[in-house]
Amino acid sequence: MRVLALLDGTLADPESSLIRIDDLGLLRGDGVFETILVVDGKPRELTPHLDRLDRSAAMLDMPTPPRAAFERAVELVLGNWTGSSELALKLVYTRGVEGGDGTPTGFALGAAIAPKVLQQRADGLAAVTLDRGIEPGLAERAPWLLLGAKSLSYAVNMAALREAERRGASEVVFTTSGGSVLEGPTSTAILVRGRTLVTPPAALGILPGTTQAALFRAAERQGWTVRVEPIAVDDLYSADGLFLVSSVRKITRVHTLDGKQLPDSSALLSELQGLYESEY
To answer: Which H or E element spans position 218?
Structure first.
């Protein structure tokens, strides 16, 4: 099932042709998006997602996304959803048609969560480390690279996932050439040592995670230590747990990295899932 709402406050048929072939989001990936988890009709972290949509649009020199229109589109999707209790809600905002009047294209699309993602939540996954070609300070030196923006230009991310599949894995942990951890193609990396959660800093040019932020808030309230600091790739293999988190995947453990079995983090996963769910 899918439900599509446009920014003019109307519903549309997701099976119909709606996007112009000269839309710059299609032609060049020139736009931004957010994906939000909805559980029992309630979108999680909606305001942080809308804030991040604003930041990404600003980085692309796009007009500020019309928040009221997006909020109305969200309500339309949720009000017409009759599928499962969980869904993925995608907000998309492109620069509009090439040579047009500059009016952006925007919509909200609700869709069922892929069975593969649900399976990985339960069973964990195998990942590989891949060099992203990013070094510390690059985001500041070269802002035109849009590091840290959630743009529609996902060709590199999808190519990395295909490379992971060729290597017998299903996910990727991007790294710098110097051996520091970045993020996954569609997720934030979290390392666990004892009662400490660690995630790499956004200054490396990665996207600050909304799910990571929610987990850190809950963990800190329960006496955990949370840190945002660089992580060396070598530390991933000996940590108590390595997790990839995102809105739709929630918290997913990595059980195998680069063909090496990691320490069993099943019990730790249950604890972290409990912390995360306590936020809602």
So the answer is: helix 210-221
